[in-house]
Amino acid sequence: MLPPSSSLLRNLVVGALWVGAPLLAVNDAHAAPPPQVKSSAPGYYRMMLGDFEVTALSDGTMTLPMDTLLTNVTAAQLKTQFAHTGLDPSHLEGSINA
Question: Span of the secretion signal (predicted)?
Answer without folding.
Answer: 1-31
